[in-house]
Amino acid sequence: MGIEGTLGARFRETLEVRLFGLLQIPMLVWVGPRVLQNDRQAVRILIPLGARTRNHLGSLYIGALVCGADLAGGIAALRICRERGVVLSFVFKDLEAKFLRRADGDVVFECRDVEAIESAVGRAVDTGERVNLPVRVYATVPRRSPTAHVATFVLTLSMKHQPGAKKPLMQKILDRVV
Known about the structure:
Order of helices and strands: HHEEHEEHEEH
Distance between the termini: 18 Å
Shape: globular
Strand order of the largest sheet: 1-2-4-5-6-3
Number of domains: 1
Low-confidence stretches: 1-5
Radius of gyration: 16 Å
CATH class: Alpha Beta
Largest sheet: 6 strands, antiparallel
Number of helices: 5
């Protein structure tokens, strides 16, 4: 895929995330996430540090940090469900977070558990049972250091196949718009 295709895909996925936020989770629109990558290798989300996301110390507010981890851990499952044409209900049922240093710049959240998420979606569809999967997300401030983590998260993604369920309204809108 050329640079134009990559930029177009990232723009489309960012638009999808923001539309999803507008329709389902308004907090996502508030923090202004950008999709940097969403493929079989990794999901990378950027949450900019700005007036809406800054805390009293000038770093990214804890709520914005958790939004970024939630998105990085969840949008792979959304993409995989859309690609397979299946409807799953999923939610993060718990969260473990370690805040290691101040996030004093734009933060990139990265999840590399995409293959495990894809496998778990398959198990949920095949068995009809609820599947729980721990998903790891790492947060960095690339302006400071692209490899030094400012926070780490483990979220348990809990999902169950909804056979015969109609596509959610949000997905129907996304299918028509983008």
